[in-house]
Design goal:
Layout (H helix, E strand, L loop, with lengths): L3 E6 L3 H13 L4 E7 L3 H11 L6 E2 L2 H4 L8 E4 L7 H10 L2 E4 L7 H14 L3 E3 L7 H11 L6 E9 L2 H10 L11 H4 L2 H11 L3 E9 L30 H6 L17 H10 L16 E8 L4 E7 L6 E8 L2 E6 L4 E6 L5 E3 L11 H15 L11 H19 L5 E2 H12 L10
Parallel strand pairs: 1-2, 1-4, 2-3, 4-5, 5-6, 7-10
Antiparallel strand pairs: 7-11, 8-9, 8-15, 9-10, 11-12, 12-13, 13-14
Helix pairs in contact: 4-5, 5-13, 5-14, 9-13
Amino acid sequence: MRQITAILVGAGARGRFVYGEYAKKYPKELKIVAVAEPNEERRQLAAKDHGLSSNQLYESWEQVLDGAVMADVAVISTQDRMHCAPTIKALELGYDVLLEKPMSPLSEEVNTMANASRKYNRLLTVCHVLRYTPFWSKIKEIIVSGGIGQIVSIQLSENVGYYHMAHSFVRGNWNKAEETSPMILQKSCHDMDILSWLIDQRCTKVSSYGSLLHFRPENAPVGSTLRCTGGCVVERECPYSAVRIYEEDDPCNEWNRFITNKLTPEGIREAIEHGPFGRCVYRCDNNVVDHQVVNMEFESGSTASFTMSGFSHDISRTVQIMGTLGEIRGYMEKSEIVLFPFGGEAIEVPVTVEEGGHGGGDEGLMREFLKQVRNENSNDDQGLTSAEASLQSHLMAFAAERSRLEGGKSVTIAEMMELQFTQVKGVASPNKVT
């Protein structure tokens, strides 16, 4: 097995704790040889993690991609609106690229990156990790085998988890659509992708509703303050209390590693008292939705409905797939799949439980991407989650957001493709759909 070398562009949560961690866990497979990260503290942590010297550390993607190729692949895990330029440059230089999802909140950039992958004949793999999980792979296998006949309808729910919602989309980095991405794209492009993959047809029409219903100033409890540690009289009762989520012995307190690099009681308390994650959830500057539903129609007439909600006790996905000959029901986080063949007995389908985030999908993605790089695949085999494959799910998400903003009216994917074309030609503004 040939060791693959990589430059890591962006050493935040995903960069450090997923891709960087894979290199630490499997050093014979992957070696990080350079890191670009504007935050000095994160740069130094990455240097320690991977044994890097000062001449292997860069403050920006421009610096690390300015010159000769120094590795086999580039892992791009910057913020959503910083994906396009480094991806294009890396492909141009000759790197195969692993790109964090979503590709971009701008449809013309999605198209530009896909075109660049073809132009430079390099891999561009998008991190739609669900396809690489044992759970979804087994469901796909049942569908392909004909076990439920033709798919008629799918119901998929993404339960974001109340603490994940508060952390990432109210207090955190993805709380404003204009700075990152709309919620349906940032959080749920995984789900658009998995629906597209399971049905294996082009989506033709989308409608959507959703809003920021709860995390608003007018819903702040009487006696609450700007910060959870600012004398808030309801802090002990509030499920969204930063003290409860990050500091106390709570099932979700593992999230404290995302608010500070000083994982001591003093460091965590300092972050709560002075950082963005100690703010009252009702008094933040957030504007992304906290719940959304999407209805989709596909070429054959099959339909799918998707529900995303920030108000659930856990982080999970549940699915019901209804076919002409049977039904599948699944609970991803419990690795539970039950097949109900019509006229027969229910069958519990065994699923391998794997370690790692997203039900083993994070590690599965890395393994498959590195295998592709070692085989030096041509554009004839761009992989399971290539930029080409990702185009469909991104268009679905763009259509859903456009529909939501326009009162739930039906939007065709053909309209989105036409709008994408005119954007690339410089005729239309992307703001209408993003």
